[in-house]
Amino acid sequence: MQPMSDDAIQVQGVLKSYGTMLAVDDVSFNVAEGEFVSLLGPSGCGKTTTLRMIAGFTDTSGGAIRVHGREVTHLPPDKRDLGFVFQNYALWPHMTVAENVAFGLKLRRKPRDVIRSKIEEALSVTGLSGYEDRLPRQLSGGQQQRVALARALALEPQVLLMDEPLSNLDRALRVVMRRELKELQARMKMTTLYVTHDQEEALSMSNRVVIMNRGRVEQIAAPYELYENPATSFVADFVGITNFLEGTASDTQGGIVGVRLASGQMLHAQARVPVAQGGAVRALIRPERVTISATELSGPNVLAGSVALSEYFGAVLRYTVRLDSGEILRAEVHNFDNFLAGGSRVWICVLPEHLRVIPHDPRG
Ligand SMILES: Nc1ncnc2c1ncn2[C@@H]1O[C@H](COP(=O)(O)OP(=O)(O)OP(=O)(O)O)[C@@H](O)[C@H]1O
After folding, report:
1. What separation in Å is there between the alpha carbon of 35 and the centre of ligand 1?
2. Which of 233, 252, 281 represents a domain boundary (last residue)?
3. Counting atoms of ligand 1 from 1, which one is nearest the CA of 51?
4. Is the CB of 88 under 6 A from ligand 1?
5. Are residues 213 and 307 in the same domain?
6. 350 in the same domain as 291
7. What is the pTM of this model?
8. Which ligand 1 atom is at minimum distance from the Cα of 41?
9. Ligand 1 within 6 A of 23 CB?
10. Whose CA is nearest to atom 18 of ligand 1?
11. Fewer beta carbons within 10 angstroms: which end of the chain, N or C?
């Protein structure tokens, strides 16, 4: 698909090979003006390489990159009008906070009063006013991270690229910082491309997420869409926990497809993507969508089994159920007043509207 021309970033068919290995394999996506887009995927899937090609730190082996419609594929990083915040934020240790933030502005020979007001503004939006004269070693990890962000913001980039900027922080700080960062990004309507392997970070901060796997794009969608309608087994498995039931597609009627399980039992599921009749398919359901009952249920889409394991996590109770047909299914219960012990006989109901059917992907 041809990306729209008024997008802030357009990545088209980008490739990166290292010898015979394709680290990035025909990746295309766009980031609209003011949008927050994340590249999410497991370690080694090509996220950082993609971001570095957009930044200009890594050469491309093919494809095109445009920033605000201008082709930048072969321009050096400083000619691309992009800001960066990387994982190792590398502040100058001998410079104060203000000097660190001023550094890029001085390189660009900005007038002294402009530099002063930019420093003030960047430190104010990152909550660092009053820290001007501190050295990096006199700051916490989160504060150092914010200095790196302030330094990037002071240059007023049209587009900000961030690679795992919160990964060095402890969990509590990471959660606080991601809220601050998101709030700041939204307030400043700053176009942002963000690399992370943390699904919570990607889901909670992004307008859209690009899921990568082995150098390729698996799916591009808004967080809700990604979670509710994963396009592939990989996405379903990588984003949240999913139950997979293998079967064969029978006829589709009124948007409902029949899935015959190996046991012979038929389930009805919503068909969001076309599936071939007789084709191998997977029916997916999230554990929190599974209804579990200790009293016998009847009707369609009911499966009988017994509790193999129950795990209590405070707010949630997770059951692992072995179905009579042999499959394992996980169910999560959020409001509960009693526990079903291991071995308990249970009935599982999976409503058609909560079951998603996707073609069986031999890679997944
Ligand atoms: N300079 C290089 N030379 C050879 N192979 C490389 C080089 N840089 C990256 N790779 C390989 O390219 C693939 C993609 O790496 P990349 O750093 O983009 O992954 P990533 O998704 O960002 O992973 P992580 O989350 O671990 O940082 C990996 O298999 C990596 O080993």
Report:
1. 26
2. 233
3. 18
4. no
5. no
6. yes
7. 0.87
8. 21
9. yes
10. 46
11. N
User: Which residues are CB-contacts of 252 (< 8 A; sequence separation ≥ 6)?
Assistant: 258, 271, 275, 277
Q: Which atom of ligand 1 is nearest to the CA of 195?
A: 22
Tell me if 20 CB under 6 Å of ligand 1. Answer: no
Q: Is the CB of 34 under 6 A from ligand 1?
A: no
Which ligand 1 atom minimizes the distance to the CA of 50?
Answer: 18
Same domain for 153 and 245, yes or no, is no
* Whether 73 and 197 share a structural domain: yes
For the chain, the domain total comes to 2
Atom nearest to 212 CA in ligand 1: 21
How much distance in Å is there from the Cα of 233 to the middle of ligand 1? Answer: 23
**Do 245 and 227 lie in a common domain?**
no
- End position of a domain, from candidates 212, 233, 254: 233
* Ligand 1 pocket, mutate which of 18, 40, 59, 216 (most atoms under 8 A from CB): 18
Domain that holds residue 13: 9-233
pLDDT in tens, the chain (364 residues): 554 468 999 999 999 999 999 999 999 999 999 999 999 999 999 999 999 999 999 999 999 999 999 999 999 998 888 988 877 667 899 999 999 999 989 988 889 999 999 999 889 888 889 999 999 999 988 788 889 989 988 888 879 999 988 877 788 878 888 888 888 888 888 999 999 999 999 999 999 999 999 999 999 999 999 999 998 889 998 999 899 999 999 887 888 899 999 888 899 998 777 788 888 999 999 999 999 999 999 888 999 999 999 999 999 999 999 999 899 999 999 988 878 999 999 999 999 999 999 887 755 5
Q: What is the CATH number of the domain that holds 270?
A: 2.40.50.140
Kindly state whether residues 33 and 156 are assigned to the same domain.
Answer: yes
Region of 299 on the Ramachandran plot (φ > 0 left; ψ -120 to 50 alpha; else beta): left
